[in-house]
Amino acid sequence: MVDPLPKREIRIEVSDDQGNRYTMILKGEVTREKALRMLDVMELLGEIPGSQRTNSDRAQLSKFAKVKDLVERHFPIGWFSSKGVLMAYEEEFHEPVSLSTVSTYLTRMVDRGILTKINAANNRKYQMVDKRFAEQLEPRKNT
């Protein structure tokens, strides 16, 4: 059984190519599964905000930028592995990339405060950092 999050409200707004705006609101007991379903529905209506690049734009990016863009679009919520990113990368860009390269880029994203990770033997998991708390992860300067 999944422990529900405290009662709250989630609002997602998406605009399509014709300028139509779609708003979905979930009030009450919000669980990870409900939030993921909500994102799936919104993705059917239009792009998730912040992912307005075209496929030709993405092809021009460096491998690191491709991995970062892919993680932001495909793994915005929840934990994921470097192998999952590798599979999504090869499926989307139709070009090979090594698992060690993906792992290196994910580690750099952790170092830059974009991702957080947990280590469990040979099973590292990564997660996007909630932007509301990102400034707490930045190193503090001693004044």
Folded structure, characterized:
This protein is of the alpha+beta class and 143 residues long. It folds into two domains: 8-45, no CATH class; 55-137, Arc Repressor Mutant, subunit A, CATH 1.10.10. Helix content is 42%, strand content 17%. The strands form two sheets. Strands 1-2 form a two-stranded antiparallel sheet. Strands 3-4 form a two-stranded antiparallel sheet. A hairpin with a 5-residue loop joins β1 and β2 (21-28). Mean pLDDT is 77; it is low at 47-51 and 134-141.
Present the secondary structure layout.
Blueprint lengths: L7 E8 L5 E8 L3 H14 L9 H5 L3 H12 L7 H12 L5 H13 L3 E4 L6 E4 L5 H4 L6
Antiparallel strand pairs: 1-2, 3-4
Helix pairs in contact: 4-5
Labels describing this entry:
Arc Repressor Mutant, subunit A; alpha+beta; 42% helix; 6 helices; 143 residues; disordered C terminus
Order of secondary-structure elements: EEHHHHHEEH
Under CATH at level 1, the class of the largest domain stands as Mainly Alpha
Report how far the terminal alpha carbons are from each other: 47 Å
Mean of residue pLDDT values: 77
- Describe the strand arrangement of the main beta sheet, using strand numbers: 1-2
**CATH T-level topology of the largest domain:** Arc Repressor Mutant, subunit A
- CATH architecture field of the largest domain: Orthogonal Bundle
Helix content: 40-55%
- Low-pLDDT segments: 47-51, 134-141
- Structural class computed from helices and strand pairing: alpha+beta
Please give the domain count.
2
Shape type = globular
Rg, alpha carbons: 17 Å
Number of helices: 6
Report strand %: 15-25%
Count of DSSP E strands?
A: 4
